[in-house]
Every structure is written in C-alpha cells, then in structure tokens.
Amino acid sequence: MSQSAPPARPTAAQLGCTIRRLRLKQGLSTEALAFAAELDPTHLGRIERGYGNPRLESLHSIARALNIRLSTLMLAVEAESRSTAA
Questions:
Q1: What DSSP designation does 28 have?
Q2: How many domains does the chain have?
Q3: For 44-52, which contacts have Cβ atoms below 8 Å and span 24 or more sequence positions?
Q4: 1 lies in a domain?
Q5: Are 56 and 47 a contacting pair, CB within 8 Å?
C-alpha cells in the first residue's frame, strides 16, 4: 500500500497572494480593503507580501471585509498551495 505525502503546509507568501488575488478580483485597493478590515494599510501590505505571521483576528477581519467566511479564505489558500506545489 502506497502512502501519499501529506499536503504541503501553506506559506505566509501563499496566504498573501491569495488575499491579494481576492482583493483585486473585487476591484479593491489595499487602502480600501484595509479600511474595511479596520487594519493599517501598511500591515495589510505586509500580510500580502508574506511578511510576519498575521493574527487570527486580522485574518477574520480581512475575510469579513472581502465578504467571505474565514474558512473560505483558508480553503482558497490551501488550493493555491496545492496548485503551486504541482
């Protein structure tokens, strides 16, 4: 019986790419999303560039501002992680 490798753990860069992609898909600027999420635009920019380790509260605020569930955001990150690993 062959075992498949466990799925790759998404990186901060993949999280940031996913957030940026979803933001752009909705036609939002970094500033507009940051305002809606009640985050500093610099902080959001750092998250999108894959720097740091954003708090769950920040991710929840970003998802809410994008009008999606946090679980939907995380599933999108996982899908992006799988597509870049292939």
A1: -
A2: 1
A3: 44/19, 47/12, 47/15, 47/16, 47/19, 48/16, 48/17, 48/19, 48/20, 48/23, 49/13, 49/16, 50/11, 50/12, 50/13, 50/14, 50/15, 50/16, 50/17, 51/12, 51/16, 52/12
A4: no
A5: no
Q: pTM of the full predicted structure?
A: 0.86
Residue 75 CB partners (closer than 8 Å, separation 6+) = none
User: Is residue 3 one of the residues assigned to a domain?
Assistant: no
CATH number of domain containing 28: 1.10.260.40
Structure tokens that stand for 75 in this block: 């599933």
> In the Cβ-directed half-sphere of 33, how many Cα atoms lie within 13 Å?
28
pLDDT at residue 86, as a whole number = 60
Structure tokens at 30: 């970094």
